[in-house]
Write a structure and sequence with these properties.
The complex is a heterodimer of chains A (523) and B (440). Chain A is of the alpha+beta class. Chain A contains eleven helices and 24 strands. Chain A starts with a helix and ends with a strand. Chain B folds into two domains: 207 residues, PmbA/TldD superfamily (PmbA/TldD fold); 227 residues, no CATH class. The chains are: A alpha+beta (523), B alpha+beta (440).
Chain lengths: 523, 440
């Protein structure tokens, strides 16, 4: 039995939302009902003397299917514990500029009357802020678009039976548990859809539909005698795609792999602290790129807008175009059009058409991530389309595009990188991660660590974390594998802002080598 | 804000729509007003309303859960139907427990109308006070003032029902000097917004910023530390997760005994360490129940250094023959009467830490954490703060930190970027710093 789309939209709000977001196959324009509703905000804002207004009407659906296999207390018998959640959220948020200051208000009641009332609330907020604004808000110019866009997908993940997803996860979990040294196993599959409409007083009307698909498996092993436990996960890249992404995850095959590797991890000897050459695989390096380069090149941080929470950046505006972040091999770009990227959309929450731009070129810092109300502060004429929010109830602000490291040459191979290492460590997957508030000093762990000796990859070691300083670290980069190794990894809970928001972003890269990095032994 | 009667009517309506033997419904409504500022001006401000009705249906041990933001009858009926359809396709949950019968929740509320109704006219004068004070000293202020008010409740079809209102507020600010070479921070959380003073808070952050000028490098290593309450909360908050009876029994916690069993009853900490939860402390928002509707009650986790209790969810409690307990959410570390200055005076050589940043678990088994000092790190010599110090990264466990605590000051509510506790400042020996951070 499947929870069909028809069943899901049976309720009035859901039915209303489904009708609102319904797409006419013969047109690439937004649903006229959305435009009519949004017009209530634009007209009310104009009546209340706002110089700018935009409204986002959004519906989210999140389905999470999971299993956990663990021993029953007392008997040791394996219990298979399922969880099935399918939730929705539907509402709207209105931004206005009045007397040069921003105001925002949001509500889950999507009616013409409530839209007018909430627009009034946003105006009230803006007027109060205007008395202690820094400078009047200046928006970089943007074209008016009337468009509808859907992220590419082959199979709607919500059309796939929940039972099929559970069976896939249970099969994997059981495979992992077949090794009697494994204590517990589990996995989950998550699907998200975001129906999103944006209209602004500058004439844009944009409807977008985005699908995202995530999956993961985990295994843990425990040695009661020594009071030690270890995990090994399989985290396939979360992507903007349909259920076809799950079929490419090879969960069954990877279940067998982590089943053996978790036991190896439990028995692996601890690393000896010291300097090592590191080869970081895409499943690990994605997060290092995110923390050290992704966040340090956000313009709002560099300008002090995040000073009270996430922090500022070592890449201050005087360093733009001059500062060497990494070696000549390092080319990093922002791209909200990367196929399957979690931050990929056609238009951002400022109504700006998205694109690709350089951030670091041959090791030199050349570009910030920007939005409409900050672009002019560094002399830019237009925004780079990095404005978005995590909900209809959240204020859109500068968030990260997909930030990726360009691959090396066609002849650069992983084997070549390894063969050039005498004493090193290859790191896969995510572990503990921490970085300072200006993105200098960081410490990263991983999910699995392999010793490299004399140019050969050997067995697993444990308790590894490396520490470095962002520019020092990237300047030791002396090898990046070629395009055939390039993979997109992603994060779906990146926090920033006050009130806090969490967003999903992808980072693409190939296996990359760093020389003589400080490694410590953790507990 | 939804009243008790409104929540009761709504939950009863949902339960009537149910056709399954078990149904439970949670209602949450929250309203938030906030002002964010940076570079000595307001950057964003807002007023938001959100609400969720979450429904779980169970039949033959199979559970399905869904939620909606629409309260109309048709939407609620559809949501119940969806949860039942999900339950129909889910396998039976072998860890399911019977629905909670009628519980007695405390007749208690920590509510403040002024907090719940505060909007920009109440909040912006405090922001202005901070900005004006910063401008007067040619400094740059950023910060955030937020207040929230919410109502929620839950009910199930075995007759249990609970309702509570919660409100809270928090003003925090970071003051930096114009060239970005110094930074100070302060935060004041309070259930009663009237207790918050922008002028006082701004003064504290400015004082930190002004004192932390031209910091000097100190080698990483083991130091005696005086941790201000926020720094204690920033790492102490992580202890809550470690009191799970399940992970302790399964060998995955610092409270697991070598060879099996738990360390309950063992004296792991000095006599002056008592760690507890008190949901009825007037300094924290109302919290009448924990996960699964279990009534929140005061619990001692560690008493005079001895591990006294573990957290039992309803399933694990049933298997272990114990009473279920609410999750150790906001914990209290008991303290003494002294101030931060008293602890400084009692320190021959050490580091004064304002707060920590980006704290993450390195090893969940030992609760080894890593993170960095931020917004004010100072050297203490012979009972006095002598000079500012460049930030350091630590690799340390709050378990070891508590084992090394020598002195405790007065308890206050402390809230960091990702933490919250009722705790005192502490003096602890042998705190491990592993590297230097250039960040300001």
């Amino acid at each position: 039995m499947n929870l069909s789309r028809r069943a899901f939209v049976a309720g009035s709000a859901a039915a209303f939302a489904a009708e609102l977001f319904a797409a006419d196959k013969n047109s690439n324009k937004p649903n006229p009902q959305l435009e009519k509703l949004a017009d209530n905000a634009l007209r009310e804002a104009k009546r209340l003397k706002a110089s700018y207004c935009d409204i986002r009407i959004i519906r989210y659906r999140d389905q999470n299917v999971g299993v956990r296999l663990s021993p029953e207390r007392g008997t040791g018998k394996t219990l298979e514990v399922p969880s099935v959640n399918d939730v929705e959220s539907f509402g709207f948020g209105v931004r206005v500029i009045v007397d040069g200051a921003w105001g925002f208000a949001a509500s889950p009641v999507v009616t013409a009357e409530e839209i007018r009332r909430i627009t009034g609330e946003a105006v009230t907020v803006a007027k109060a802020s205007a008395s202690i604004k820094l400078k009047p808000v200046v928006l970089a110019p943007v074209k008016a678009y009337r468009d509808r866009w859907t992220s590419p997908f082959e199979k709607n993940p919500f059309d796939v039976a929940v039972a099929e997803k559970l069976e896939l996860l249970l099969d994997s979990g059981r495979q992992i548990k077949k090794n009697t040294q494994v204590f517990g196993s589990g996995g989950s599959l998550s699907s998200r859809s975001e129906d999103k409409y944006f209209a602004s007083s500058e004439g844009s009307s944009i409807q977008q539909l985005i699908f995202q698909t995530f999956g993961q498996l985990q295994a843990n092993a425990v040695d009661l005698a020594s009071r030690k436990s270890k995990t090994r996960n399989y985290d396939p890249a979360p992507v903007s795609a349909g259920y076809e992404a799950v079929q490419k995850m090879n969960l069954g095959e990877n279940a067998l792999r982590i089943r053996d590797e978790v036991v190896e991890h439990l028995k692996a000897p601890p690393v000896k602290p010291g300097k090592y050459d590191l080869i970081l695989m895409p499943s690990h390096l994605g997060l290092t790129i995110h923390e050290s380069i992704g966040h340090s090149t956000e313009l709002d941080r560099a300008l002090g807008y995040e000073a009270n929470y996430a922090g500022t950046s070592f890449l201050t505006t005087d360093k733009l175009g001059k500062f060497r972040v990494g070696s000549d091999l390092m080319n990093v770009y922002g791209d909200r059009t990367t196929p399957q990227g979690l931050s990929t959309v056609a238009y951002d929450d400022d109504g700006v058409k998205t694109g690709k731009f350089d951030i670091i070129k041959k090791g030199i810092f050349v570009g910030y991530q920007t939005i409409r109300d900050q672009a002019h502060l560094i002399g830019d004429k237009e925004s780079r389309g990095c404005c978005y929010a995590d909900s209809w109830a959240s204020v859109p602000f500068q968030r990260m595009p997909n930030v990726s490291l360009a691959p090396g040459g066609n002849d650069d191979t992983l084997e070549g990188l390894i063969s050039g290492v005498d004493n090193g460590i290859l790191i896969e997957g995510r572990g503990s991660y921490s970085i300072d508030q200006q993105r200098y000093n960081f410490q990263f762990g991983g999910d699995a660590f392999y010793e490299i000796k004399g140019g050969k990859r050997r067995g697993m070691i444990a308790q590894v974390a490396y520490q470095s300083r962002t520019p020092d670290f990237w300047q030791t980069c002396d090898g990046i594998a070629g395009p055939s190794y390039w993979q997109l990894y992603g994060l779906f809970r990146d926090g920033k802002g006050e009130p806090g928001q969490v967003n999903a972003i992808s980072h693409g890269c190939s296996p990359t080598r760093f020389r003589q990095i400080n490694v410590i032994t953790t507990d | 804000m939804m009243t008790r009667d409104q929540v009761k009517q709504l939950t009863e309506k949902v339960l009537k729509f149910s056709s399954f033997p078990e149904c439970s419904v949670n209602v949450n409504e929250i309203e938030e007003a906030f002002v964010r500022f940076a570079n000595n001006g307001v950057t964003t401000a807002g007023f938001t309303v959100d609400r969720t009705v979450r429904i779980s249906s169970v039949r033959d041990g199979r559970t399905g859960t869904t939620s909606t933001t629409d309260l109309t009858d048709e939407a609620l009926k559809a949501a119940v139907k969806r949860s039942e359809e999900l339950a129909a396709v889910a396998p039976p949950n072998p860890e399911r427990v019977d629905p909670l019968g009628l519980q007695k929740y405390a007749d208690y509320e920590n509510w403040d109308d002024k907090t719940a109704n505060a909007r920009s006219p109440v909040m912006t004068p405090h922001v202005k006070a901070i900005i004006d004070a910063a401008l007067a000293k040619k400094l740059v202020a950023a910060g955030f003032f937020t207040r929230s008010a919410g109502a929620g409740g839950f009910a199930n079809n075995t007759g249990n029902f609970g309702y509570q209102r919660q409100c809270d507020s928090r003003l925090t600010t970071t003051v930096r000097n114009a060239d970005g070479s110094s930074s100070g921070w302060a935060c004041q959380p309070s259930v009663r917004i009237g207790e918050i003073s922008g002028a006082d808070l701004g003064g504290r952050a400015i004082e930190k910023c002004t004192r932390w000028t031209k910091p000097e490098k100190l080698d990483p290593g083991k130091y005696t530390v005086v941790l201000e309450p926020t720094a204690v909360a920033d790492i102490g908050t992580y202890l809550g997760f470690s009191f799970s009876a399940r992970s302790a029994e399964e060998g995955r916690s610092f409270l697991s005994k070598k060879g099996g069993g738990t360390l309950v009853g063992d004296k792991m900490f000095p006599d002056h360490i008592t760690l507890r939860s008190d949901p009825f402390d007037k300094r924290v928002p109302t919290s009448l129940w924990g996960q699964g509707g279990v009534p929140n009650t005061p619990i001692n986790w560690v008493e005079k250094g001895v591990v006294k209790n573990l957290f039992y969810d309803r399933y694990w409690a049933m298997k272990a023959g114990k009473q279920p307990t609410a999750f150790p959410g906001l914990m209290t570390l008991e303290g003494g009467t002294g101030s931060v200055n008293d602890l400084i005076k009692a320190t021959d050589r050490g580091l004064l830490v304002t707060r920590f940043w980006y704290v993450r678990t390195v090893n969940p088994q030992t609760v080894q954490l890593t993170g960095l000092t931020r917004d004010g790190l100072f050297l203490i010599e012979k009972g006095e703060v002598t000079r500012p110090v460049i930030n350091l990264r630590f690799n340390e466990s709050p378990v070891r930190m508590l084992q090394n605590v020598k002195l405790l000051g007065r308890v206050e509510r402390a809230q960091g970027a990702e933490s919250q506790m009722l705790c005192p400042p502490v003096q602890a020996t042998d705190f491990t710093f592993s590297s230097i951070s250039d960040a300001v």
